[in-house]
Design a protein that fits this description.
Order of helices and strands: EHEHEHEEEH
Structural class: alpha+beta
Oligomer: single chain
Helix content: 25-40%
Strand order of the largest sheet: 1-2-6-5-4-3
Largest sheet: 6 strands, mixed
Distance between the termini: 23 Å
């Protein structure tokens, strides 16, 4: 399921927390427009959510953004902050990409999404 919505910062935090807790399992790709994030807001967004350095390569991130931006007719973000989060119940990973301080993308590591970015599936 693709989610595309404009939300407040607090709602984005709730979406991420709920996905980590095992809800929102239908989400495959999320595209969220939120208020501009300051460094302080970015810290608040991820407080209480364990993040990891992303395991995606720069090429894979670019591939995901290009396919998502094509889908939504968006311009390519000028800068990105990228972290991974892991769902507690089953270890499923998602990559959260913050682009140009207003757009946030979430890609769940499903087989179809990994194929889309060029990862080989065993």
């Amino acid at each position: 399921m693709y989610i595309r919505i404009e939300i407040q910062l607090e709602q984005m935090k709730t979406i991420l927390e709920s996905w980590v807790a095992g809800r929102n399992r239908e989400m495959e790709i999320g595209f969220f427009r939120i208020d501009k994030l300051t460094d302080q807001d970015h810290k608040a967004l991820f407080s209480g959510i364990k993040t990891q350095d992303t395991q995606l390569t720069g090429v894979e991130i670019t591939s995901f953004l290009v396919s998502t931006i094509d889908l939504h007719k968006m311009r390519f973000p000028s800068s990105t902050i990228t972290v991974d989060i892991v769902r507690k119940s089953d270890g499923m990973r998602a990559t959260v990409i913050e682009g140009d301080k207003r757009n946030m993308f979430v890609m769940v590591w499903s087989e179809s999404n990994l194929r889309m970015i060029g990862q080989e599936i065993d």
